[in-house]
Each structure stands twice: as C-alpha cells, then as structure tokens.
Specification:
Layout lengths: L2 E4 L2 E4 L5 E3 L5 E2 L2 H6 L6 H17 L2 E6 L9 H8 L5 E7 L13 E2 L4 E2 L3 H11 L11 E5 L7 H17 L3 E4 L6 H11 L7 E4 L7 H9 L3 E4 L10 H13 L6 E3 L6 E2 L4 H7 L7 H12 L4 H17 L3
Parallel strand pairs: 3-5, 4-14, 5-6, 6-9, 7-8, 9-10, 10-11, 11-12, 12-13
Antiparallel strand pairs: 1-2
Helix pairs in contact: 2-3, 4-5
Family: Belongs to the metallo-dependent hydrolases superfamily. Phosphotriesterase family.
GO molecular function: hydrolase activity; zinc ion binding
Protein name: Phosphotriesterase
C-alpha cells in the first residue's frame, strides 16, 4: 500500500474507503470574490460546506478527491478549516485549469519566450507535491490539467506537458478534464504518452458525459481510468443514459476501468446560485449514494463491481504514486 497525502495529513491508501474521485469543495473566481464579495459570506459558506460534507460522510463515503487547482480558486487554509470539522479525507491537487491560454503570470517566462527559462510551472507543481501548498503542511497528491472544446491549444499543451514533467519527477497520478464531444481524451492520451506518462496513472475526467462505447473503450484499453463523474449534470447527459453506459461497460468487463463521482461542489460562482439549483437539482454530493448506486444495481451491476469502482480503483490509482 501507499501513503496518500490528504488535507489532514498522510493516510494509508488502504484506509481511503469509498472514494468519490472528482468533487470540489468550492469553485471560485478568487479575484472577483475578493473585489466584489456581495455573494460571499465566509462563515456561512464554511458552515454550509461542513453540513454538506457531513451528510456525504454519513452515506459511507470516506474520501473525496478535489481537483481544484489554479484557475478554479484553490485556497487551502479555508479547506483546512472545513476539514477540521468533518471526518472525511479530502485529497487536493496541483496544476493549472485552462481551456485556452496559460495565466498571464506565465505568458512571458518559459522555454523560448521573452524570458527564456525552464518551464516555471513544473517547479511549482513539484513543490506543491513534495513540500506543501502556500506555506501550509498540506501536500497535493495528484496533478490536474484540462482540454476542452478548443482542443490542444498552445496554452493547454504547455500546461499538459508541465503536468507530465512533474508526474515524471514525482510519480504523482494525473486527472485530465476532457470534452467528450471532440474526443479530446484521445489527444490528451497521445500527448501524455509521448511525454512518457504511464496512462494507467491517468483518469480521463468527464468520460461519463459520453455514450460512445467505442470512444470510451479506446480510452480504457489504452490504460486510463474513465471518470464517470458528472452525475447530476443531467443538462449535459440525462441520468438514464449515464447509468446505462456504466452498466454496459461493467457488463463488458470494464468495471476495473471506471471511477465514480459528481463534479459537485458546496458552492460554485460560475452560475447564479438559485438558478443553478433549479437547472440541476440533483447536482450534489449525495446523488450517487441515494440514486445512482441503486439504479446501477437495478441494471445488474454487482456489489463487487461497485466496490471495484468506489474502493479498489481509487486505491490503485494512488498506490501507483511514487
């Protein structure tokens, strides 16, 4: 077994229990929040997060994996305050979230740029993984990058290569936000493989937005885990199609290649809060426990296969680190 870094400190991977592999505590535009804080009450939001995570833990979920990185409002001291009040493991990430360009901080510095230096993102990612984040004792346990409808833009490619280099230095596994509609997971796999990444250490996030079994099995057969991780976002793909796809993949022997989650959060400031609740009423932490697992069982997915997806696959993902 491996030691996995969490917000509360190192945990043996055998103690992770049932894991949701892609959940956020908060998704925030931090600069906007700090300058226009009308919608934000720090104490109220922390109390709300404690309540929601406590409800999740009561369902038997022991661990959430939180891929909130630069670009999504990562702020570890706030997460520490929450985790002090909830008995759940929170595993955090390092990386940069962009669909197009790198943050301006990196625009002029790096290989071949105005200030021709080694890639500065690599050192930042490695520091988060090995020393701690933002002066705290909390270490990241995995890396996160994204590729969206825009495809492999120069900025996306640069971040992805930096993630791959940090992975090679540390052994930390990787999660990639993908867009299934342009099959961007295949582009990500090719680049990561070219960079020497073991694809068995990669989750292809948001694969659950697709019903294209040929595409999904191609990703899985190349080694990656499929992130079936947007339950509750029925606007993107209806509930029935999501569970039918998982059930069919499990029937074909792919339970060992899937992980489950919702990509939910206690609060996200990308959408008006009340309208978001109306548009996606099931987009919350407990949807899998309350609705998804019973629906999968009704479709013939076994308890053993559910354990594989919730317990065994996440453990192997983190066992591979180092």
């Amino acid at each position: 077994m491996a030691t996995v870094q969490t917000v509360r400190g190192p945990v043996d991977s055998a103690q992770l229990g049932s894991v949701l592999m892609h959940e956020h505590v908060f998704v925030l535009s931090e600069e906007i929040r700090e300058n226009y804080p009308d919608y934000w009450d720090e104490e109220e939001r922390i109390a709300d997060a404690v309540r929601k995570l406590t409800e999740l833990a009561a369902r038997g979920i022991s661990t959430i994996v939180d891929p909130t990185v630069i670009g999504l409002g990562r702020y570890i001291p706030r997460i520490q305050r929450i985790n002090e009040q909830v008995d759940i493991n929170i595993i955090v990430a390092t990386g940069v979230y962009t669909y197009n360009d790198v943050p301006l901080h990196f625009h002029f510095q790096g290989p071949g740029l105005l200030f021709d230096t080694p890639e500065p993102m690599v050192d930042l990612f490695v520091r988060d993984l090995t020393e701690g984040i933002a002066g705290t004792s909390v270490k990241a346990a995995f890396l996160k990058c994204a590729i969206e409808a825009e495809g492999m833009t120069p900025g996306v490619e640069r971040v992805m290569r930096a993630v791959a280099q940090a992975h090679r230095q540390t052994g930390a596994p990787i999660t990639v936000h993908t867009n299934v509609h342009n099959q961007s997971g295949l582009l990500a796999q090719k680049l990561l493989a070219d960079e020497g990444v073991d694809l068995t250490k990669v989750v292809m996030g948001h694969s659950g937005d697709s019903t294209d079994l040929e595409y999904l099995t191609r990703l899985a057969d190349a080694g990656s885990l499929l992130g079936m991780d947007r339950f509750g976002l029925d606007l993107l793909l209806p509930f029935e199609q999501r569970v039918d796809t998982i059930a069919e993949l499990a029937r074909r022997g792919y339970a060992e290649k899937m992980v489950l989650s919702q990509d939910a959060s206690c609060f996200i400031d990308w959408f008006p809060h009340e309208l978001r609740l109306q548009a996606a009423p099931n987009w919350n932490y407990t949807h899998i426990s309350d609705d998804v697992l019973p629906a999968l069982q009704q479709r013939g997915v076994t308890e053993e296969q559910i354990t594989t997806m919730l317990v065994d696959n996440p453990r192997r993902y983190f066992d591979s680190a180092g």
